[in-house]
Amino acid sequence: MPTRPPVLAEPGEPWVEDPYARALQTGRGPLYLRRMAPLAPGVAELLPLDVERWCAAPDAADIDVLHRCTGPVLDVGCGPGRLVAALAARGIPALGVDVSPAAVARTRRLGGAALRRSVFDRLPRESRWGTVLLMDGNVGIGGDPVPLLARLRDAVRPGGRLLAEAAGDDVDERLTVRVEDAHGRHGRPFSWARVGPTALLHAADVTGWIVTGRWTAQGRPFVELHRPNAGQDRHGMPKQEHTTADDGTAATVLPADGRP
Question: Which residue among 27, 86, 90, 221 is the one 20 to 30 A from 68 at the CA level?
Answer without folding.
Answer: 27
